[in-house]
């Protein structure tokens, strides 16, 4: 399986995402923001960082990159896409996910090891977890406060599209403690914390992040074996 | 000279710089025809005899641009004119070392760590800009040191920040510290460099002059080492990166080379403004250029901007250079040639490339969206073999024609007068060993709690949470660990450890020993992780060199550091001197800050600092040993300062042979797997180490101090050097004790770790860990506010009812705690004692709080089930 990782100008965790994909057993394929060709990858990760310096609004410029135009089309067709941190912000700007990520309520960048509860395992990126499972994954952001209007939030909850919530403290003020959400089909997931930083005992607080990457491999294997949509299990 | 009012910034040097617009630029030709024109050399910081020497070198008066260039390059900051005669010791006393690939004089020292890999590291000061404009000053400090690392051919892989502020509760510290921390985070985080350690020290001596030092480390294949020589006649001089603006003009000559006074506020235009995104692109484009072999020479633009880069690259090669200044891309078209040469705009590099490679260089720059402009070319040496000349024109006017070496290498050198400070004898006689001490168990208990809550010893999470420590995925240990530890090679496990330390109080009492103590501490911090210390970088922060007492402190500190490095076999590879750290006549404590680099053949054997959580059903804890010997050494200690506000006496003795033995023991022990945790003893002594080792993973300790005539108080609070605490798993204790004996390191069993969350010192006191944690972690949030758990809205009962909902801020913490009781235990960080500070903190919180309607969805909702 081949997982593409997009590098935008200002992407920072692209190498880490590629490493995580490799550790999970995939082939990591580096994609360039200016190249619309996705080289036939089976899934895509939009990594963390400060694309274009985040100078206009986080992710606002990156969504117009040639690579993103292809990814938006492919995601609508079912390609599994995981947006981490800046990647989550890009997915919201691209309208593949609802809502927006705003300045942390305490106005500081915050980096800590964060407990999350996996709320939905019906996505391409979380099917390897058990519902309600608690995981420990680093969070690090300055603009990670998830906001949406009440109706959207209600719908996300009702449709089981809240993928993960912060537990034991909300690090940024996200509404309803939302740390990750998915689209209706379950193939596109945006997550604020960084699973790619929790894949090795030597460098991470846990190995819990690996589950996101092994999940997508499982979804892809299932899809190719049974012709299923990657999102559904 | 006249001053154009609309361009006046209230800053004399700038006025002088822009005044050349009256009647066009001051050309070489004009200088020849107006030999007697009065020039503002004094305003630019040049002494009369220095000005005379410039006239002698040029055989005429300098042009306005040349005068500015000399004033910059001959400033204290660039020329090291006061420190040079002392710094030579670092070379003269340098121990034999086959690892050094580049040393002092290069942008940063380079140390080989394997057959094909090298690391480069350096620490630098950005003190004055950070006082004037904390955010940008600190941010561009990070940017500057990172470019030094980049210029050596390395990929920057981490940063560290030794920071020193005035009194923690002083109102101006509340202005400076949050800005500095945000600036370091804002720049480093956006650059994608993990921040893996540093220091945060408070002392009134730094009130008007905080110290913001920045360290960076990078890694490179040995074959990619870059040089700054502008070699190859006909090669093209390319300016890469940001456009040049008016920021930072006079930065090094005005800000860094003069004492602060009341007019500091007006110097804000001298502070550069950073753009970390541009720097990230600059890093990636330079690395791509190196790997493609497109670079013949490279130099970063930092302090002194183009002036420094052009003269140093040309001087290093002995060649000349021809530069067309009008080609430099500008942010403001009206900039004069002098301003272009003096600008310290950030995120720029100077490349020397062959004409054939120029198109490829421009293509790489375009790929990354970075400006690249050919602004000049390398010209031959003089026909008689002497170095070539640097000739700079601006729109066909030749404004500079100088021998580049006269700027870069042949600046003035002063052997300034030195004199021991008059008050030193009295200060050293006033020993802390005679101060009243706590004697009963209750008094000791109270002292421990008071000490761990003091600003220098308390939890620094408030600061370090604002830094990304994970990016790049190779951070093995980061703050609050003794050293930052990085994996360098995923394949082999090759790694490095880095620590940076200093103690201004010790250096004030005895600068020679103080410098050695700083070295010993950094060395020890690296050694206790199991790494082998191999090299040193230093940042020497002192007052005015024109004060003989300061100059004496400097001379002593350099001598101490050079002697220490010789003894330890760890050469100084590079660093930085920062003078004029004083407000009015009052100099800061002499503050040599020392960084030590260590190497791991296999980084997985690193030893962390926290006592490990007992595995499985293991009922018995691990054995805790105190390594090294404890003497009655309290002068200059944190205890004397916190409990008595006392500074006097002589600092602890330092024995570098013992430090080496301790280091060798720890390296061996980590290879044998005898030690599961190790923590060096320094500020705050054994008490502080026990608290930190317990709180790291909430593991208790039962301590029984030896009954050997040394009092519990001395054991707990003395700051004797050469010591560490280790935790040894059952089954390894005999072997470890034998190993310590082999290495000649005193090894005293002092207790065991325990599942029970308490710190007990038998016969004296017991403190539950939650009580310790509360005392330890409440201090900085209470002082600087802002980052406690996200505020629940006042009077929103749903918050209190739901344990997974965000905890309240300090303002409503009391309300929340009262309502929720035990359910909030994990989420609510604040308990009763902090409530005392509630009033004060609420006002801080409200100031920065977003308006109620900032969140489109309204108030935060509790979790739904």
TrEMBL record, chain B:
Domain PurM-like N-terminal span(s) in chain numbering: 105-219, 481-599
Binding site for Mg(2+) 1: 124, 576
Enzyme class: ligase
HAMAP family: PurL_2 (MF_00420)
Subcellular location: Cytoplasm
Example of a GO MF term: phosphoribosylformylglycinamidine synthase activity
Residue ranges constituting the PurM-like C-terminal domain according to the UniProt record: 233-381, 620-762
Main subcellular location of this protein, as a coarse class: cytoplasm
Sequence positions that bind substrate: 125-128, 147, 272, 344-346, 578
Binding site for ATP: 80, 122, 538, 575
Pfam families noted in UniProt: AIRS, AIRS_C, FGAR-AT_linker
Transmembrane segments: none
Lineage of the species this protein comes from: Bacteria, Bacillati, Actinomycetota, Actinomycetes, Micromonosporales
Record pathway: Purine metabolism; IMP biosynthesis via de novo pathway; 5-amino-1-(5-phospho-D-ribosyl)imidazole from N(2)-formyl-N(1)-(5-phospho-D-ribosyl)glycinamide: step 1/2
Biological role stated in the UniProt entry: Part of the phosphoribosylformylglycinamidine synthase complex involved in the purines biosynthetic pathway. Catalyzes the ATP-dependent conversion of formylglycinamide ribonucleotide (FGAR) and glutamine to yield formylglycinamidine ribonucleotide (FGAM) and glutamate. The FGAM synthase complex is composed of three subunits. PurQ produces an ammonia molecule by converting glutamine to glutamate. PurL transfers the ammonia molecule to FGAR to form FGAM in an ATP-dependent manner.
Start and end residues of each Phosphoribosylformylglycinamidine synthase linker domain: 39-81
Catalytic reaction list: N(2)-formyl-N(1)-(5-phospho-beta-D-ribosyl)glycinamide + L-glutamine + ATP + H2O = 2-formamido-N(1)-(5-O-phospho-beta-D-ribosyl)acetamidine + L-glutamate + ADP + phosphate + H(+)
CDD domains: PurL_repeat1, PurL_repeat2
Residues engaged in binding Mg(2+) 2: 148, 300
InterPro entries: PRibForGlyAmidine_synth_PurL, PurL_linker, PurM-like_C_dom, PurM-like_C_sf, PurM-like_N, PurM-like_N_sf
Active-site residues, Swiss-Prot/TrEMBL: 77, 126
Gene name per UniProt: purL
Keyword annotations from UniProtKB, A to Z: ATP-binding, Cytoplasm, Ligase, Magnesium, Metal-binding, Nucleotide-binding, Purine biosynthesis
UniProt similarity note: Belongs to the FGAMS family.
EC number: 6.3.5.3
Quaternary structure and partners: Monomer. Part of the FGAM synthase complex composed of 1 PurL, 1 PurQ and 2 PurS subunits.
Record's protein name: Phosphoribosylformylglycinamidine synthase subunit PurL
């Amino acid at each position: 399986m081949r997982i593409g990782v997009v590098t935008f100008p200002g992407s920072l965790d692209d190498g880490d995402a590629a490493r995580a994909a490799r550790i999970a057993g995939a082939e990591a394929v580096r994609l360039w923001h200016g190249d619309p060709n996705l080289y036939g990858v089976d899934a895509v990760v939009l990594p963390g960082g400060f694309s274009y310096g985040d100078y206009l609004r986080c992710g606002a410029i990156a969504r117009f990159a040639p690579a993103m135009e292809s990814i938006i089309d492919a995601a609508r067709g079912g390609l599994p896409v995981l947006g981490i941190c800046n990647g989550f912000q890009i997915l919201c700007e691209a309208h593949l996910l609802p809502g927006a990520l705003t300045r942390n309520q305490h106005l500081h960048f915050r980096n800590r090891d964060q407990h999350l509860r996996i709320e939905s395992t019906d996505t391409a990126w979380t099917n390897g977890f058990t519902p309600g499972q608690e995981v420990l994954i680093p969070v690090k952001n300055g603009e990670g406060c998830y906001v949406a209007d009440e109706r959207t939030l209600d719908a996300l909850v009702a449709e089981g599209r809240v993928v993960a919530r912060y537990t034991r403290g909300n690090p940024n003020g996200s509404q309803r403690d939302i740390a990750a959400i998915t689209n209706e089909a379950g193939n596109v997931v945006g997550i604020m914390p960084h699973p790619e930083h929790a894949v090795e005992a030597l460098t991470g607080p846990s190995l819990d992040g690996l589950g996101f990457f092994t999940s997508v491999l499982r979804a892809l294997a299932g899809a190719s074996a049974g012709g299923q949509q990657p999102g559904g299990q | 000279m006249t001053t154009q009012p609309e361009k006046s910034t209230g800053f004399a040097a700038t006025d002088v710089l822009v005044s050349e617009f009256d009647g066009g630029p001051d050309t070489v030709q004009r200088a020849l025809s107006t030999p007697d024109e009065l020039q503002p050399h004094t305003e630019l910081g040049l002494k009369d005899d220095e000005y005379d020497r410039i006239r002698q070198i040029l055989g005429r008066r300098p042009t306005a641009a040349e005068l500015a260039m000399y004033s910059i390059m001959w400033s204290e900051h660039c020329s090291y004119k006061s420190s040079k005669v002392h710094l030579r010791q670092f070379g003269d006393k340098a121990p034999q070392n086959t690892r050094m690939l580049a040393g002092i004089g290069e942008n940063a020292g380079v140390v080989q760590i394997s057959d094909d890999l090298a690391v480069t590291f350096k620490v630098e000061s950005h003190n004055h800009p950070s006082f004037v404009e904390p955010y940008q000053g600190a941010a561009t400090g990070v940017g500057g040191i990172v470019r030094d690392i980049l210029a050596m051919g390395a990929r920057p892989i981490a940063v560290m920040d030794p920071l020193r502020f005035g009194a923690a509760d002083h109102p101006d510290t509340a202005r400076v510290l949050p800005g500095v921390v945000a600036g370091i985070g804002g720049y480093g985080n956006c650059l994608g460099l993990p921040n893996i350690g540093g220091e945060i020290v408070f002392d009134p001596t730094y009130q008007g002059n905080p110290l913001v030092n920045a360290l960076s480390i990078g890694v490179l294949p040995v074959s990619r080492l870059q040089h700054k020589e502008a070699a190859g006649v006909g090669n093209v001089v390319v300016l890469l990166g940001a456009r040049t603006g008016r920021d930072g003009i006079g930065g090094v000559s005005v800000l860094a080379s003069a004492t602060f006074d009341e007019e500091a506020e007006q110097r804000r235009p001298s502070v550069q403004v950073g753009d970390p995104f541009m720097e990230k692109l600059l890093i990636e484009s330079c690395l791509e250029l190196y790997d493609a072999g497109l670079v013949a020479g490279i130099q970063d633009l930092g302090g002194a901007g183009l002036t420094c880069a052009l003269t140093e690259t040309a001087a290093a090669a002995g060649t000349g250079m021809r530069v067309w200044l009008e080609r430099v891309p500008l942010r403001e078209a009206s900039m004069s040639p002098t301003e272009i040469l003096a600008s310290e705009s950030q995120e720029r590099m100077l490349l020397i490339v062959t004409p054939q490679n120029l198109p490829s260089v421009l293509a790489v720059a375009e790929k990354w969206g970075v400006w690249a402009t050919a602004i000049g070319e390398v010209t031959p040496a003089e026909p008689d073999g002497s170095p070539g000349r640097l000739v700079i024109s601006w729109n066909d006017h030749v404004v500079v024609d100088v021998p580049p070496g006269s700027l870069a290498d042949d600046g003035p050198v002063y052997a300034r007068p030195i004199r021991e400070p008059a008050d030193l004898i009295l200060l050293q006689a006033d020993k802390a060993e005679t101060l009243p001490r706590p004697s009963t168990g209750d008094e000791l208990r109270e002292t421990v709690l008071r000490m761990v809550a003091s600003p220098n010893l308390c939890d620094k999470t408030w600061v370090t949470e604002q830094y990304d420590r994970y990016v790049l995925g190779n951070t093995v240990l980061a703050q609050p660990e003794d050293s930052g530890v990085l994996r360098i090679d995923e394949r082999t496990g090759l790694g490095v450890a880095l620590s940076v330390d200093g103690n201004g109080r010790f250096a004030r009492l005895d600068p020679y020993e103080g410098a050695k103590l700083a070295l010993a501490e950094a060395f020890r911090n690296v050694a206790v992780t199991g790494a082998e210390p191999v090299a040193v970088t230093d940042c020497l922060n002192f007052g005015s060199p024109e004060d003989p007492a300061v100059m004496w402190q400097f001379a002593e500190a350099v001598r101490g550091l050079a002697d220490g490095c010789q003894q330890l076999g760890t050469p100084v590879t590079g660093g930085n001197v920062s003078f004029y750290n004083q407000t009015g006549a009052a100099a800061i404590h002499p503050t040599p800050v020392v960084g030590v680099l260590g190497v791991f053949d296999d980084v997985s054997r690193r030893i962390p600092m926290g006592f490990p959580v007992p595995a499985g059903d293991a009922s018995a804890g691990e054995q805790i040993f105190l390594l090294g010997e404890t003497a009655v050494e309290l002068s200059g200690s944190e205890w004397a300062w916190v409990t008595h506000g006392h500074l006097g006496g002589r600092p602890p003795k330092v024995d570098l042979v013992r430090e080496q033995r301790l280091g060798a023991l720890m390296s061996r022990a980590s290879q044998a797997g005898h030690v599961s945790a190790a923590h060096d003893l320094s500020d705050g002594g054994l008490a502080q180490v026990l608290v930190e080792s317990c709180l790291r993973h909430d593991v208790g300790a039962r301590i029984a101090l030896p009954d050997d005539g040394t009092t519990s108080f001395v054991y707990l609070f003395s700051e004797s050097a050469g010591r560490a605490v280790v935790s040894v798993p059952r089954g390894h204790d005999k072997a470890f004790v034998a190993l310590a004996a082999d290495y000649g390191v005193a090894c005293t069993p002092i207790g065991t770790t325990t599942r029970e969350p308490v710190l007990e010192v038998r016969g004296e006191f017991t403190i539950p860990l939650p009580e310790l944690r509360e005392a330890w972690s409440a201090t900085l949030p209470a002082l600087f506010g802002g980052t406690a758990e996200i505020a629940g809205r006042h009077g929103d009962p749903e918050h209190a009812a739901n344990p997974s909902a965000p905890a309240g801020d300090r303002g409503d913490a009391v309300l929340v705690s009262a309502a929720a009781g035990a359910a909030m235990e994990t989420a609510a960080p604040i308990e009763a004692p902090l409530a005392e500070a509630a009033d004060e903190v609420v006002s801080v919180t409200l100031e920065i709080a977003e308006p109620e309607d900032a969140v489109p969805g309204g108030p935060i909702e509790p979790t739904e089930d």
